[in-house]
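2024-03-11 09:14:02 INFO worker-7 job=invfold-0412 stage=load source=structure_tokens
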């Protein structure tokens, strides 16, 4: 019996080695074939350029550059896959062939194939380098000729800046990281001090007071039991406007009943001998409270907020408004709105004490007495501002209300933006932008382990860092994006269509203001970095991202994705130093604590940014929202990772904040 098990184990081992050999040969053949194909295409392009058969030199150069990078990435990652397969089996390809019964003939054949592959790669590099050099010379000559004819030197400088003298994206990332660290130290972890409080206050909702929180509970209870979208967003022959009006009146009736149950006298005044339209201001006030609360607390009202926004969206329809005879949508109360009610209230936002009065107190790495001193400075600054700008139409309590609301915004930024900063720091500190460490390369290849992009280590490093920088900018301007998203969703006569987007029926609606703001954020990020890897397409108002509500919901998930990973990577050395059994397990399974941390980060930076996760191949890739889709796809596979037990030992429950 023992002999049979040993024989079976040996057969399995030989079978695995044979499969590994086949993987190596396939990767090698694909790399060589792809290199030959690209070299042929580049030669054809070279002939067109030299022959002068094309006028769009810049476009052709960009195409050549993209093709060259993809080809080199594919070839490099095929080699990386070969090394990874050898490490998995524990022997090299010659031993695999010997085990397969080929002996010295297999060794000789393997060496011949290796020499042939190296010769092909060397020839490919020579061809592509020559093509790029010739193409750059031709393009430069064409531009100089145009400049001499038009007496305009701006085109040449712009072209050189864009291609011939392109900024190093990795250096730009390091510079931006240093700027972010300095800004955080100056401002205590809050918003960028260069940003005007006057501009930020326009999009910061006011914190709810005690009475408003009572009404919030009524709204949450009414929305929780409502089945609004289940009744309205269906294909039916009955009148949709009538269904919408009936459901809105039902929710208003529930809220009225809850008011009576909580405060009989107030409820009696509300409903006695009155119709819904007579209480329009009351219902509009409650829905505005719910919108403010959700923006300040994205983790709250996870299902209720969608019902509320779609209800308010439908109430803006002329047909529904005529049936209801009242309007539910009210302007959002912001810090700017409250200060603008006073003649000199907005002057406070330019006061130098604003940064101190609203700063987030960071206790990490500080002694207790220093933290206490910063708290007292913050309290004194608040008292000074409340006394200095108090007026007949703006009380000290109102000023403190504004200061607390802006401070809440800084607390939001700390929770949602800081994980992105931490992940960027891990990337720059633990990985070289050009040279990969053995076993920790960030390179990915299309079709390998689910990836839908082909990037070598350096290109993937830039792609990941730029994606994280973009997420940081979005988190920094999230309140503004949310404000504009609600404006697009609830604007009068901004019709939507109910379409099957592949994930059920969804409301597809154009969102021009949100899209414009997102383009500004993307342009600002690209300007800082000087180079962009991948697509810059923003999906909004199509089957990928149907409306602004879906757009906002996608980007509020960034902190939920990154925060658990950051927590595990940061706390792992501390936990290992305190728990001897945990350290022993990590060293046995991953060689060392540092290797375990690098393994987690390498896998995240590779497969959370590999273009995967879409419903089909055409929607996958490197577009702006596709980067976040890939990250969610990585999260869904966390249970299958070799380091999943390390996550659980560090207290990980799920990427849903409600489970933490």
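2024-03-11 09:14:09 INFO worker-7 stage=emit residues=660
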């Amino acid at each position: 019996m023992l002999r049979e098990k040993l024989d079976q184990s040996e057969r399995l081992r030989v079978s695995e080695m044979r499969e590994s050999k086949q993987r190596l040969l396939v990767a090698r053949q694909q790399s060589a074939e792809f290199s030959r194909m690209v070299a042929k295409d580049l030669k054809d392009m070279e002939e067109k350029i030299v022959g002068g058969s094309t006028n769009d030199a810049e476009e052709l150069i960009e195409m050549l550059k993209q093709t060259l990078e993809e080809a080199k990435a594919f070839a490099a990652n095929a080699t990386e896959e070969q090394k990874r397969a050898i490490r998995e089996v524990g022997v090299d390809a010659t031993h695999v062939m010997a085990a397969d019964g080929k002996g010295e003939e297999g060794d000789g054949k393997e060496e011949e194939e290796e020499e042939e592959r190296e010769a092909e790669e060397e020839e490919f590099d020579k061809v592509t380098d020559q093509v790029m050099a010739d193409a750059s010379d031709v393009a430069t000559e064409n531009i100089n000729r145009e400049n001499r004819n038009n007496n305009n030197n701006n085109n040449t400088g712009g072209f050189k800046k864009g291609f011939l003298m392109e900024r190093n994206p990795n250096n730009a990332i390091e510079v931006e990281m240093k700027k972010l660290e300095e800004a955080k130290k100056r401002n205590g972890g809050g918003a960028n001090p260069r940003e005007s409080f006057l501009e930020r206050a326009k999009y910061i909702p006011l914190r709810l007071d005690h009475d408003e929180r009572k009404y919030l509970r009524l709204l949450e209870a009414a929305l929780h039991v409502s089945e609004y979208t289940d009744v309205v967003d269906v294909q039916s022959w009955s009148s949709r406007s009538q269904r919408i009006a009936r459901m809105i009146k039902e929710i208003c009736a529930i809220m009225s009943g809850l008011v009576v149950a909580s405060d009989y006298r107030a409820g009696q005044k509300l409903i006695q001998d009155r119709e819904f339209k007579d209480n329009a201001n009351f219902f509009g006030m409650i829905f505005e409270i719910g919108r403010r609360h959700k923006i300040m607390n994205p983790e709250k009202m996870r299902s209720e907020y969608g019902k509320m926004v779609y209800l308010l969206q439908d109430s803006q329809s002329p047909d529904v408004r005529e049936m209801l005879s009242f309007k539910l949508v009210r302007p959002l109360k912001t810090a700017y709105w409250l200060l603008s009610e006073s003649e000199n209230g907005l002057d406070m936002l330019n006061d130098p004490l604003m940064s101190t009065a609203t700063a987030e107190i960071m206790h990490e790495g500080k002694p207790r007495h220093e933290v206490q001193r910063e708290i007292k400075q913050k309290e004194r600054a608040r008292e000074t501002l409340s006394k200095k700008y108090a007026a007949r139409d703006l009380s000290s309590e109102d000023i403190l209300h504004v200061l607390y609301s802006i401070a809440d915004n800084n607390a939001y930024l700390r929770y949602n933006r800081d994980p992105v900063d931490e992940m960027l720091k891990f990337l720059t500190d633990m990985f070289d932008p050009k040279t990969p460490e053995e076993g920790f390369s960030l390179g990915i290849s299309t079709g390998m382990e689910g990836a839908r992009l082909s990037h070598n280590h350096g290109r993937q490093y830039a792609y990941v860092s730029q994606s994280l920088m973009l997420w940081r900018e979005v988190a920094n301007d999230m309140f503004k994006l949310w404000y504009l998203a609600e404006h697009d969703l609830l604007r009068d006569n901004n019709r939507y269509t109910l379409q099957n987007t592949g994930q059920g029926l969804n409301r597809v609606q154009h969102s021009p203001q949100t899209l414009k703001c997102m383009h500004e954020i993307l342009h600002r990020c690209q300007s800082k970095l000087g180079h962009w890897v991948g697509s810059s397409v923003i999906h909004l108002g199509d089957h990928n991202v149907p409306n602004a509500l879906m757009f906002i919901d996608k980007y509020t998930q960034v902190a939920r994705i990154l925060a658990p990973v950051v927590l595990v990577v940061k706390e792992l050395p501390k936990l290992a130093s305190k728990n001897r059994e945990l350290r022993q397990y990590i060293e046995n399974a991953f060689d060392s604590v540092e290797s375990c941390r690098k393994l987690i980060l390498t896998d995240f930076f590779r497969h959370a940014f590999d273009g995967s996760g879409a419903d089909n191949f055409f929607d996958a890739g490197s577009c702006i929202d596709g980067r976040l889709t890939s990250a969610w796809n990585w999260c869904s596979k966390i249970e299958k990772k070799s380091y999943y037990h390390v996550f659980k030992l560090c207290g990980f429950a799920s990427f849903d904040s409600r489970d933490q």
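2024-03-11 09:14:09 INFO worker-7 stage=report msg="Residues 89-107, 149-167 have pLDDT under 50 and may be disordered."
2024-03-11 09:14:10 INFO worker-7 job finished
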